[in-house]
Amino acid sequence: MYQHGGDIYTHKNMIDFSSNINPLGPPDGVITAACEGIRSVSYYPDPWCNKLRERLSKMHQLPKEYILCGNGAAELIFSFVLAYKPKKALFPIPTFHEYEQALHTIDCDITYYSMKEENDFILTDDFIPAITNDLDIIFLCNPNNPTGHLIPNGLLDQILQKCVDYNIYLVIDECFMDFVNKEEQDSFIEKCTTVKTLFILKAFTKLYAIPGLRLGYMISSNTEMLMKMKEVTQPWNVSVPAQLAGIAALEEEEYVNKSIELILQERKYLMSELSKMNLKLYDSKGNYIFFQGDKGLYEECLNKGILIRDCSNYEGLEQGYYRIAVKDHISNEKLVHILQEVI
């Protein structure tokens, strides 16, 4: 069975660099809101997440009907696939595993486009010919997980246009876009208003450090498709604490700015220190760093109390590829010290 990062239950008392969560932890306001939600667990949650969708609608300046909330981004991926039942799908590899896992549940024919190591696993114009008119759906992760690369703006426009021409559904996972330097952010959310075959996936998990609450949302002007997703999803899928936490999180502008500043600063520090070691680094734009090192590095770090992400189970990768989260400076210093010992 596929193993994700963040398994602190098997690997106890470790400093966890394997999951890409905001090192500041949840904002106090979000914790307070979630705790208030506990007081209301004797009532069913709003199945439509109306107050949360209204707040998201205001933030994104989109109609509330264009937003569907879910029990984490992963649930929305599965709901989308179950509702649409695509027969043929395409996505580049390596990338987030849930696209493949969801598609396998309906026996969808998957075409993998292998991003080349000699191109640093960056998506290039060679992807365009892979988009054929027999496809039903394409999944893209931007910035990509685990590499952290952004898809070049012009290329993404070409991909979208070809999907429009062939009536292919394009799902862009922007769950890590919030950690990208604002000057480099290139969200396609605004394009949803005019392109009904475009779907944007977002989550509260990483930015607000609440993976245990499970909260994500999808944006699209294709309201019929969003309704189909709702119909195949269990009712009351987003808990009261999660909904209240999400509403509170959207008020945390100062926290978000502080988080991005910290990530940019600490990513720069880690890239500088890791560049002095026998590692090949890739230019990540997210809150994590992807690199190639010696086989067995995962186990070496584990023995020293550090949990990093072994990326060898990503489709398209082999042993020797790793990903680390960008954490607080003290934790990052500990990681650097351990890597200096074992490399």
TrEMBL record:
Key words of the record: Pyridoxal phosphate
UniProt xrefs under Pfam families: Aminotran_1_2
Keyword GTP-binding carried by entry: no
InterPro entries associated with the record: Aminotransferase_I/II_large, PyrdxlP-dep_Trfase, PyrdxlP-dep_Trfase_major, PyrdxlP-dep_Trfase_small
GO MF: catalytic activity; pyridoxal phosphate binding
Domain (Aminotransferase class I/classII large): residue spans on this chain: 13-338
Cofactor(s) listed: pyridoxal 5'-phosphate
Protein name: L-threonine O-3-phosphate decarboxylase
Organismal lineage: Bacteria, Bacillati, Bacillota, Clostridia, Lachnospirales
